[in-house]
């Protein structure tokens, strides 16, 4: 055979021989009517690539359903997120204003300014949060 | 039957009770409390679960192993989608954060063993601002340290968005600064408030059931209504427990993303 002539490829030929033997043995087993575990009709053992391809195909059907369920289920979570973003920024602005008031002794002046800035920062937070949510939901749907 | 007046109030579940007392150092009390106990139980359960799931690693996973793999893939996808390939180094942190909060939330929903003293009752560690605040501060510290380490002073571009009219730079950096400072606060408050509110509502409904049953006669039949309410709230709580852990993890990812990509703003 070819193997004797090309000695450098002995290793390769060994593998090929093994594969041939394996196929022969399996076809023998198939023809003798012995049932194989799961995929009796297949000619070669399923490779990992093929398996992941099939897995992805099967997953493709569920992906959309899961996405919509997560979208509706977290409506309250989203509302809570927006509210807490706004309140947290207001709180920080208020604290900063009160701190500066205490340092300078200027009465409630900086508290009011701080509240204004805190509200602005809160709106910024909210608009960012909404943008993220929009991106996420459009990406899924 | 317990009379309504004697039934414990809905806030009693959040009481911190010392189990092992350590001498207080000044104002700091380092006692081992029921909160510490439940954190320890949570961490122990996580370690045991992952040790059991990864003890026999096989190509075709069994039930335990595939549940862990799904969890890992879920968080890995989250990190990759939010931060990009560079986020890989934050995966262990985000994963730990997610699992710790998830288990803390879920273990708080376990029933207490009847008859045990109050200090061994089920305790929701995440219903305390001290715990969620510590997690949020740790997250924002990582963001700041990594941001400066990675971008140097370019990290400050976060407060200096490009392409604005000149006069807006008078106040936009201050607004951005406040917005940045508010992040850990909103992170901590959201988780803590969700768990606190949920558990109070749950115990209020349960308290109604006891009070109505205690009234006896026809009135005790009405007790079915708050009981059904409690069941519904319980189911909602399971959803919220998972959702809040997810929200905490995804927001940590978003903030870390700012630290990673601050230069390109």
Tell me the number of helical segments of chain A per DSSP (H or I, 4 or more residues long).
5
- Termini of chain A, distance in Å? 59 Å
Biggest sheet character of chain B: 2 strands, antiparallel
Q: Could you list the spans of chain A in which at least 5 consecutive residues all have pLDDT below 50?
A: 1-14, 33-42, 65-73
Weakly predicted, low-confidence segments of chain B: 1-6
* Mean pLDDT across all amino acids of chain A: 70
| Domain tally of chain A | 2
DSSP, total strands of chain B: 2
Q: Biggest interface and its residues per chain?
A: A-B, 22 and 21 residues
Cα-atom radius of gyration of chain B: 23 Å
Proportion of residues in helical segments of chain A: over 70%
| Helix fraction bin of chain B | 55-70%
Number of H- or I-type helical stretches of chain B: 7
Largest sheet of chain A: none
For the biggest β-sheet of chain B, the strand order reads 1-2
Give the ordered list of helices and strands of chain A.
HHHHH
In total, how many beta strands of chain A? 0
Mean pLDDT of chain B: 87
Topology of chain B as a string of helices (H) and strands (E): EEHHHHHHH
The backbone outline of chain A, from C-alpha atoms, is: rod-shaped
Describe what you observe in this structure.
- Chain A has 141 residues and is mainly alpha-helical.
- Chain A is 81% helix and 0% strand.
- The radius of gyration of chain A is 34 Å and the shape is rod-shaped.
- The two termini of chain A are 59 Å apart.
- Mean pLDDT of chain A is 70; it is low at 1-14, 33-42 and 65-73.
- Chain B is an all-alpha fold and 265 residues long.
- Chain B has one domain.
- A two-stranded antiparallel sheet of chain B has the order 1-2.
- The A-B interface holds A 73-74, 77, 80-81, 84-85, 87-89, 91-93, 96, 117-118, 120-122, 124-125, 132 and B 171, 174-176, 178-179, 181-183, 185-186, 189-190, 193-194, 239-240, 243-244, 247, 254.
